[in-house]
Amino acid sequence: MITDKTTMRSLGNEPPILADGRRAPDRREISLRWLSGTFLTGITSSLLMGVALFAAVDGRQQLAIPAEAYAALGPAAGGAQPTAAKRGDRILTPSIVAKPSDRTIMEVSTMIHDGEKEVVRRQPFAHVKMTLAANHQPTDSYPAFDPLAIFSNEETDGAPPVSRTGTLYGSDVESEVALKTVDFPLKGSTLKFASSMSLDEVEENVRTNGSVLTDGNTQIASLFYVDPRRFASDASDLDLIQGLSARVVEENMTVSAFENITDQSAEYADDVIPVRRATPIANVMINAGYAKEQAENIAGYLRPALDAKELQEGDVLRIGIIQKGENGEAKIVRASVYSRGSHVFTMALDDTDHFVKGFEPPQLSAVASAFDDNGTPAITAGYDLPRVYDGVYRAALSYGMNSTMVAQIIKLLASNVDFQAQLKPTDRLEAFFSVADDSGKATDDSELLYVNARFGDAETRFYRFQDPDDNTIDYYNEQGKSIRQFLLRNPVPNGTFRSGFGMRRHPILGFSRMHTGVDWSAPRGTPIIAAGNGVVEKAGWDSGGYGNQTLIRHANGYVSSYNHQSAIAKGVTPGAKVVQGQVIGWVGTTGLSTGPHLHYELIVNGNRVDPLRIRLPGGKSLDGNALAQFEKERTRIDELLAKDNGSAEVAAAQ
Questions:
Q1: 577-603 residue pLDDT tens
Q2: Is the pLDDT assigned to residue 188 strictly greater than 70?
Q3: Measured between alpha carbons, how far is residue 277 from residues 57, 291, 301, 308, 313 in Å?
Q4: Where are the alpha helices (DSSP H) in 262-379?
Q5: pTM of the model
Q6: From start to end residue, where is composition biased (Polar residues) (predicted)?
Q7: Cα–Cα distance between 111 and 633 in angstroms, integer?
Q8: How far apart are CA 576 and CA 578, in angstroms?
Q9: Residue 651 and residue 362: Cα distance in Å, rounded?
């Protein structure tokens, strides 16, 4: 029988070969070291392979949002070259784009005329973007809704208003600059000409400034061709290094090509929506302005994940969107839910455009400050929304406007907006106006330069402009047409419609005859306003049954007639000029009348027409030199606002 001892001897018991006189180690010691080394090597190799595999497949089921690369290129969006990459840098830094601010104070150069001089100075302007349905808390009170106050205009002196802001200047100035334009003296000039430059001085200037005049510079088009070898350095026949720049790219790294950001480039942003009361998930998004289909789609994914149909008070819904252009459709690519500041759940689009569970996105300070008073206010529920009139006043006053400026906006929008209607969650108002300082508060000297109002599906956009032909200041749409109506259809804003245009039985005469106007009923003494600008043609008693009558001749053959007045306003006499909204008389029942009302007629080229159905022409239209100057002013305002809208706030992850 072979024993274990015999087996061990059969393996050999010769001592190992020694070197350097060292002690011969025991064979058991060698075996343990070998086993330990082999085991540790295997474990280490497995861990390294596992880490490499995990890094290779990590995030395959998550959406890699390409638009986040644009966020990392924030400063480069304005045309600057991206900074040189270094070894170990990430292409996408751990930062995301937050929702742009809805209030910005910017310094803008403006120019006003002071006699023969043009004074250019910098002054602050406020750019605000208001969600009217939000729960705004204005500090100042505002007047109650009064239709007469909206349409009335007491500027009867005819003097053009003074422009305190002037026009936007095309370039920035550091301080106040006075410009004076004089004719170039063609004869008898007193200016002395400097001595001619020597050839050495010319060549020195070329050497000094030659690097600036490279290909692509517009200045080079006006220069004569000069042989470059003439100004080359002495070390070589041609200096190819001058004016060139180089960038060293390290090995083993990828550098992506720089892409210019345009108006149609995809941009990524986070919309942070605080929840102030228990609300269904879809309603939270609908109230924030998202389409019903989008809201229902997101809610369908979040309901089973959260095991709830509603978001509770204190929750925050964070929506990641990608949008191309200002008017492009916003695509939702990620949605996260936070409860009391802690992350609850995130879903994101994968490569197949399906929502899957995702990791928590980088932290955003806007989530923590969602319920701060300085943050974007929450939108109230649809049944709690106020009237359009109240919504405009509350939002505008809370964003720094004063009552005078808000009343001006109300007047300008009165012909297109029903201020008695209820606000919609998507109603918004954008404005650009001058302020006194960085506080962003409007003063009595502030002027409104731009308004973009969206109510439902209708959008109204207009710009302030002073016509150089007659120095009148008005507001025009993008095509240079005044947004003011040519004629108002109702000269009694507080009145009630009683009788229309057409055949009817006369209440006094007792037989049918043509009713050549429309009747507006109102209490005796209710003010009557002029339907448009014009010249008074008649103001006095009419023997044909109209009682106290006023006829106003307008442009292009239009005449408006106001009848049965109790009295005619002072100063409304034949030949006097009146403006739209000016009080010209008061409701009465003079002449053939059964009660206090205004019989209003509109006469076009001698023919009486229905004032409520006729298609009225628009207001004043700019043309020629005035239209060209307006387009320049409009372009400067658009560029300023576009630059402000593109300056997205970048918030780094904690």
A1: 998 888 999 999 998 888 899 999 999
A2: no
A3: 41, 21, 21, 15, 4
A4: 281-287, 292-306, 365-368
A5: 0.51
A6: 1-10
A7: 12
A8: 7
A9: 9
